[in-house]
Structure formats: structure tokens, C-alpha cells
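Researcher: I need the complex structure. Ligand is flavin-adenine dinucleotide. Inputs:
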Amino acid sequence: MLPDVASPIGIALATSRSTDRSNSTPPAPDVCFTLITRRLRRELAQASCDPASISYTLVTKSPGILPAFPHAFRARFRKVLRERGIAVFAGAAVTRVESGCLFLDGTAPVAADEILWTTQAAPPPWFGQAGLSVDASGFLEVDATLRAVGQSNVFGAGDAIAFCPRALPKSGVYAVRAGPVLADNIRRALTGRALRPFRPQHEALYLVSTGERYAVGARNGLSFEGGWVWRWKDWIDRRFMRKFNALPGMKETRRGPLFTSRGPGRVT
Ligand SMILES: Cc1cc2nc3c(=O)[nH]c(=O)nc-3n(C[C@H](O)[C@H](O)[C@H](O)COP(=O)(O)OP(=O)(O)OC[C@H]3O[C@@H](n4cnc5c(N)ncnc54)[C@H](O)[C@@H]3O)c2cc1C
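Model: Output:
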């Protein structure tokens, strides 16, 4: 539904996120905000309202936008935000929120008719309450085999874990790639075989749409942009989503079930 645009409206996005690389979640809230503003402006224009009647402010505790990304990538997005007239308050921790107002640490409050609040990934509190080993933020600590530290029969993967060998971004890339290792290691644990390590990649490819069939990408510290980046991203995304719609036929297997009424079956 479109807002009533008779009076000027301000929308603020407050992001509550660590600057720690391990907690970056793509696409970052900063990027989502650019997409939201673009969509709102388009819908206002379609409704014959003045898109300039809404002002946008992005408030972030980190010293700048997209702190986990390469310098050139951040610079490209700063330009996008500037072009879209989105004001940025960086290094501004929100200390209090009241209806229509964000109070910031060390600077004047920001008034807004609508406030969107985004946060980083958080673990469920019961990990620690159940006596599992957790890091300072409460994420489940797992070793290189994705087994919970100090446990024989608890495993974890994805956003909920703190991977002890090294900090991993809270990103689908790592969650998806941990899946087959997790499944394999659960089978191995059940059948008394040695567990295998999860070897996550060191760098991931990030392709982020700016909303008009144009995207910005980063890999190995390099940054690039263009219509071709968006088409590349679109191709990758569609290929990924097809896997959920066009399911492959299941092969007949000569292997028995994992469990039989007489105990664990043979798994090769
Ligand atoms: C808006 C957005 C865009 C993103 N875009 C990208 C991207 O482009 N590329 C990328 O790599 N990553 C992206 N990510 C990050 C990515 O989605 C996550 O890293 C990934 O989904 C983590 O997978 P997961 O299985 O660990 O957790 P999730 O996908 O969050 O799955 C956890 C599941 O557990 C369920 N659950 C929670 N508690 C319980 C409970 N008590 N009982 C039962 N079920 C429960 C939840 O409902 C959920 O279905 C994005 C994230 C967001 C929020």
C-alpha cells in the first residue's frame, strides 16, 4: 500500500550489525535499503505522486556501509546511495528508539515516519542453556568436522554455528556447502566411521543487484559492475532455483536403508 504523501515522509533504516567479517550477511541491509527506496519511488511515480516526497536515511553503527566488502565495492555502493539521495549516518550507534525517532550516540536524533530495523544473524538461546559449547555471541561451536565441541552426537552447520578452525561469514554459500559434509558425517558417526573435515572456501563470489538489471560484484578483493554482472547473477540464481522445481529422478540403489529392524544398515 502506498503511504499518504500529502506531507513529507522520512524513512530510516537502522542496521544493528557487527563490523566483524564473520558476521556479514549478504546482501547487507544497506543494499536492501537501496532496493526498497528504488521500488517505493517507482510505485509513487506510477501512482502519479512525487517520488521526492519521501526522504531516506540509513543509520549504521559500523564506520561505513558494507564493512566486510572490498574498498572498491563499498565505493561503488556509496555512489549508488548518493545517486538515490539516501543520507548515510555511519558510526552512529542507535541508543534508543521512540515512535518516529532514533536516538544516536554522540549525534542529533533522526526523525522518521517509518523505521525499518535490520539485524545480523543471531543464534537461538537454548544452545548455551542446554550446556552446549558456544562462542561469546552464543553461536554453537563446532570443530572442523561440524561436530559440536565436546559432544559426540551433536552436529551443526549454517548461520547457527561458530566454526572453530576459522570465522566464516553467515552466508548461504557456506551453509549450502556444509550440507553434504554434515549429512555424510552424521551417517559416519552413526556407523562408527571416521568423520571428514569441512573445508570451506576462503573467498566467495558476491553479486549484488542494485535493482535495475545492473549489479555490482566482488571476488578476491576485486570489484566489478555492469549489466553483464546482473545477467550473470540472474543466470546463477535461476539455475539454483531450478533445482527446487525440476527435481531429478531418484536412482535405484542396491544399498540397504541406513537402519533396519536389526540395527544400522551398511552405508558405503
Ligand atoms: C534477506 C536475505 C538475503 C540473503 N541473500 C543471500 C545471498 O544472496 N547469498 C547468500 O549466500 N546468502 C544470503 N543470505 C544469507 C543466507 O540466507 C543464510 O546464510 C542461510 O540461509 C543460512 O542457512 P541456514 O540453514 O543456516 O539457516 P536458515 O536458512 O535461516 O534456516 C534455518 C531454519 O530453521 C528453522 N528454525 C529456526 N528455529 C527453529 C526451531 N526451534 N524449530 C524448528 N525449526 C526452526 C527456521 O524456520 C529456518 O527455516 C541472505 C539472508 C537474508 C536474510
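Model: Summary of the prediction. The domain at 126-201 is CATH 3.50.50.60 (FAD/NAD(P)-binding domain).
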